[in-house]
Q: What sequence folds into this?
C-alpha cells in the first residue's frame, strides 16, 4: 500500500510503497478515504518536531473510511462500517495518511448520519485536543477564558465547547474572523493582546509566553505544545495538552459535528500522491479549514 512517510534529514514528506499491516487483537483496519493534514504533520516533515532516535515515521493523525478488517475481540464493528479515528502512534512507520491504517478500537468511532467522510476526517485530532485542553483548565465557575487562535481548528472547537460549558469566553483572532468567532459563542472578541488579564488562557495559536502574559496572577494556562510548556510564574499553573485517543470523547465530537454545534471546515482536497502540495498549503498558514488527502 501507499503511505506518507518522513525520513530523518529529508525535510519533506514522501509517498512510499509499504507493507499493509494486519490488525492485532482489539484493533481495526480501515481503508482510508480521507486523512487530514495538520500543522503538526508539517512540523514532523520539516524536522521541527523530530526525535534523534527516529529514522522513518509515518504521518497523519485524522482519518475516515470503511472498516476493512477487525482483530480478535472486536465485535461491535464489521467490514464496511463507516468510521473515523485518531492515530496517536507516533513514531510508527505507517499512520493515518495511507491507503490503510490500523488503530486500536478505542481510537475509532462510527460516523453518525449527517456527516460526510471528508467532513469527519477533519474532526478527531482538533476536537479531542480542544476537549482535553478544557479538561485541564478545570471547572469554569463563571471564569473568563481567553482562547487564542479562536478561528482556527482547535480554537474554533474549543470556543464552542467552552461557551457551552459555562466559560465567559473571549476569542482572539484576526479582524476578518469576528463574525465566525462571535457566532460560535464568544462573549467578547479581540484582535490583540492589549494588556488585559484573564482567569485562564487556552493558547490554541501557540503564542506561548505572549499568551502566558495575559493570565491573571494565580490563573491557568494550557498550551498545545507538550514539548514546550512555558515556565510557571506569578502562581500560574502552566500545562500543555498531549492528545490521547478517547472513544467517548470522539463519539461526542462526531455527534456535535453532525448536529452543527461543531463546524468541520474543509479547505480543499488533494490525492495522496500530492501530499507535498497539501503540506505546503498548511505551512503557508492562514487556513480556515483542513486540507485533506484522498488515498
A:
Amino acid at each position: 500500500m501507499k503511505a506518507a512517510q518522513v525520513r530523518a534529514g529529508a525535510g519533506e514528506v514522501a509517498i512510499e510503497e509499504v507493507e499493509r499491516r494486519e490488525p492485532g487483537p482489539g484493533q481495526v483496519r480501515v481503508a482510508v478515504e480521507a486523512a487530514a493534514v495538520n500543522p503538526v504533520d508539517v512540523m514532523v516533515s520539516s524536522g521541527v518536531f523530530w526525535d534523534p532516535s527516529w529514522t522513518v515515521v509515518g504521518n497523519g493523525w485524522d482519518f475516515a473510511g470503511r472498516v476493512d478488517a477487525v482483530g480478535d475481540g472486536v465485535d461491535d464493528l464489521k467490514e464496511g462500517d463507516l468510521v473515523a479515528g485518531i492515530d496517536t502512534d507516533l513514531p510508527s512507520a505507517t499512520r493515518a495518511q495511507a491507503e490503510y491504517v490500523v488503530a486500536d478500537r478505542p481510537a475509532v468511532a462510527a460516523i453518525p448520519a449527517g456527516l460526510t467522510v471528508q467532513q469527519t476526517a477533519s474532526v478527531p485530532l482538533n476536537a479531542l485536543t480542544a476537549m482535553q485542553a478544557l479538561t485541564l483548565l478545570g471547572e469554569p465557575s463563571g471564569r473568563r477564558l481567553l482562547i487564542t487562535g479562536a478561528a482556527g481548528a482547535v480554537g474554533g472547537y474549543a470556543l464552542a465547547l467552552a461557551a457551552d460549558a459555562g466559560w465567559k469566553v473571549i476569542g482572539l483572532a484576526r479582524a476578518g474572523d469576528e463574525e465566525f468567532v462571535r457566532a460560535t459563542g464568544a462573549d467578547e472578541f479581540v484582535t490583540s493582546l492589549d494588556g488585559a488579564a484573564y482567569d485562564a488562557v487556552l493558547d490554541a495559536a501557540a503564542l506561548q509566553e505572549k499568551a502566558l502574559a495575559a493570565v491573571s496572577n494565580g490563573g491557568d494556562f494550557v498550551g498545545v505544545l507538550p514539548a514546550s510548556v512555558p515556565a510557571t510564574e506569578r502562581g500560574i499553573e502552566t500545562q500543555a495538552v498531549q492528545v490521547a485517543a478517547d472513544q467517548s470523547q470522539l463519539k461526542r465530537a462526531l455527534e456535535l459535528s453532525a448536529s452543527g454545534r461543531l463546524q468541520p471546515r474543509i479547505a480543499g482536497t488533494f490525492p495522496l500522491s500530492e501530499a507535498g502540495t497539501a503540506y505546503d498549503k498548511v505551512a503557508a498558514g492562514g487556513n480556515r479549514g483542513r486540507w485533506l488527502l484522498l488515498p
